[in-house]
């Protein structure tokens, strides 16, 4: 079939949608800005709650979508709306005429340096969830001393549920990611004390509550309900964290070898850039606006434009893959309706 289907983004949503469309007899075109496929998940180590290797998921998706036309290191330079289609100009000079555009542009992580009170970029021993995930994958980060990790802290909701950061929404996966990373650190440093500072724990997904209980019971991870009020550094370069334990009503002060900030999901600027070119609306939370947030979340208000994954809001891996499959089916039915 010769119908051009353009997928913007080569993360797991774009790859899964491409694989499904290939099975349906189409040959989609994937436009990926970076030099590799798999998006954020390609940079992760294990996936909650089963601790399955992220590389296995990504490798399978890449293999299943390998027959698609894939452009790496490529951006969309211009989108021109024609009568019943779109003219898409790529940064490599190629122009594509298509009736169908699938946005799978994903998310970005909140810039933790904007929350100066937490010390990211100021104190040496403060990192983000992304930095820690990189260390799990590579073992390369000078902030982690394999012979001297006695205490580690995690701060939840960094840049999420935060009016000052202009993001009042929950980032959905920060709580469970913190627990996953805390367990991984305890597995590597069994004698270290690990603290999680949280506002509320939102264990909404399948097996998430079990994962949380396991973190306490089997790994001794301590959960402190209360927002961190102050982060400092002592003469030895260790991090001093002050908070209030709102359950006990007492102040808490701990000295840590490492503080990990759980930066939340925000809309990928590339999503906004392409949306502006194609006259697609942005929702009040900064993500792309669907036709509605209940029955038509994978459909845009524009004819022939579809969404899948975290371009419309924070999503888990299973949710992202499910939306990608649903979007592929919607595109198939859309094309059939045009024939």
Write the layout of secondary structure elements.
Elements: E1 5-8, H1 12-23, E2 29-31, E3 46-47, E4 52-53, H2 54-64, E5 69-71, E6 76-81, E7 86-90, E8 95-98, E9 100-103, E10 107-109, E11 126-128, H3 129-138, E12 151-158, H4 174-188, E13 193-198, H5 208-217, E14 222-225, E15 228-233, E16 239-245, E17 250-256, E18 258-263, E19 265-267, H6 269-277, E20 305-307, H7 317-338
Parallel strand pairs: 1-2, 1-9, 2-5, 9-20, 11-18, 12-13, 12-18, 13-14
Antiparallel strand pairs: 3-4, 6-7, 7-8, 10-19, 15-16, 16-17
Helix pairs in contact: 1-2, 1-7, 3-4, 4-5
Description:
With 339 residues, this protein is an alpha/beta fold. The protein is 26% helix and 26% strand. The protein contains seven helices and 20 strands. Strands 5-2-1-9-20 form a five-stranded parallel sheet, with helices on one face. The radius of gyration is 22 Å and the shape is elongated. It starts with a strand and ends with a helix. The model has no long low-confidence stretch (mean pLDDT 95).
Adjacency order of strands in the biggest sheet: 5-2-1-9-20
Largest sheet: 5 strands, parallel
Unreliable segments of 5+ consecutive residues? none
Task: Return Rg in Å.
Answer: 22 Å
Reported CATH architecture of the largest domain: 3-Layer(bba) Sandwich
CATH superfamily of the largest domain: FAD/NAD(P)-binding domain
Helix content: 25-40%
CATH class of the largest domain: Alpha Beta
The number of domains is: 2
Overall form:
elongated
Determine the strand fraction and express it as a percent band. Answer: 25-35%
Distance between the termini: 12 Å
Topology-level CATH name of the largest domain: FAD/NAD(P)-binding domain
E-strand count: 20
Structural class: alpha/beta
Question: What is the helix/strand order?
Answer: EHEEEHEEEEEEEHEHEHEEEEEEHEH
Mean pLDDT: 95
What is the count of helical runs? 7
């Amino acid at each position: 079939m010769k119908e051009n289907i353009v997928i913007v983004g080569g993360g797991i949503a774009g790859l899964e949608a491409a694989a499904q469309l290939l099975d349906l007899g189409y040959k989609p075109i994937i436009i990926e800005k970076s030099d590799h496929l798999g998006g954020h998940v390609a940079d992760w180590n294990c996936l909650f709650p089963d601790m399955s290797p992220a590389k296995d998921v990504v490798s399978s998706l890449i293999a299943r979508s390998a027959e698609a036309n894939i452009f790496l290191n490529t951006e969309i330079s211009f989108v021109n709306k024609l009568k019943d289609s779109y003219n898409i100009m790529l940064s490599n000079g190629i122009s594509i005429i298509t009736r169908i555009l699938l946005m799978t542009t994903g998310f970005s992580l909140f810039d933790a340096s904007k929350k100066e009170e937490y010390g990211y970029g100021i104190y040496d021993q403060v990192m983000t969830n992304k930095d820690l995930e990189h260390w799990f994958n590579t073992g390369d980060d000078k902030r982690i001393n394999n012979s001297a990790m006695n205490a580690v802290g995690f701060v939840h909701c960094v840049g999420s549920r935060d009016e000052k950061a202009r993001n009042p929404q929950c980032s959905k996966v920060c709580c469970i990611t913190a627990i996953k990373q805390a367990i991984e650190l305890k597995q590597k440093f069994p004698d270290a004390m690990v603290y999680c500072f949280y506002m509320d724990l939102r264990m909404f997904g399948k097996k998430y509550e079990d994962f949380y209980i396991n973190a306490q019971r089997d790994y001794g991870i301590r959960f402190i309900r209360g927002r961190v009020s102050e982060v400092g550094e002592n003469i030895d370069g260790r991090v001093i964290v002050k908070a209030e334990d709102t359950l006990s009503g007492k102040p808490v002060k701990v000295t840590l070898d490492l503080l990990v900030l759980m930066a939340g999901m925000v809309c990928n600027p590339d999503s906004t850039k392409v949306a502006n070119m194609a006259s697609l609306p942005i929702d009040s939370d900064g993500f792309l606006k669907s036709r509605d947030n209940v029955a038509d979340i994978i459909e845009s208000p524009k004819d022939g434009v579809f969404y899948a994954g975290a371009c419309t809001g924070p999503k888990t891996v299973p949710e992202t893959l499910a939306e990608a499959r649903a979007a592929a089916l919607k595109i198939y039915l859309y094309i059939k309706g045009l024939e």
